Amino acid sequence: SVMELKFLELLKSKGVSKPQIKILPGFLLGKLADNERSYNDDERVTEKCFENYDVTQLQCSTSRMATGEGVYVCPILVDNPKARMGNTIQETLRPFPLTHSACYTCRVTGMTCKSSP
């Protein structure tokens, strides 16, 4: 996108030799929900969302977010008590229901917090 190219040019002009940026989709949470809108009732993951889709493309299928407050299913949801899966990684080696509205954004946009190689 033009915005991405402009950011890359800016970083290069500031001496960053191999700039990398990641533009994240908007998650309709927090201030964005306050200022724009929150998720609509139909913006939820359903079983149909995963027809002909490899669920392992979702970061939460292979990763967890460890914090001082516990281990969470997703870095986007670390402030959500319902996303806390336990105190240890061992406790989180199980599926997690994709019931949060943020799960919808990840599924429909292909969003991942992982860095590109």
Which helices and strands appear, and what pairs or packs with what?
Blueprint: H1 2-13, H2 30-35, E1 65-67, E2 70-72, E3 84-86, H3 101-109
Antiparallel strand pairs: 1-2, 2-3
User: How much of the sequence is in beta strands?
Assistant: 5-15%
- The geometry reads as globular
Mean pLDDT: 91
Low-confidence stretches: none
Number of helices: 3
Based on helices, strands and strand pairing, what is the structural class? alpha+beta
Query: Radius of gyration, rounded?
Result: 17 Å
**What is the β-strand count?**
3
Describe the structure.
The chain contains three helices and three strands, in the order H-H-E-E-E-H. It is α+β, with helices and mostly antiparallel strands and 117 residues long. It has one domain. A hairpin with a 2-residue loop joins strand 1 and strand 2. The longest helix is centred in the first third of the chain and has 12 residues. The two termini are 20 Å apart. The model has no long low-confidence stretch (mean pLDDT 91).
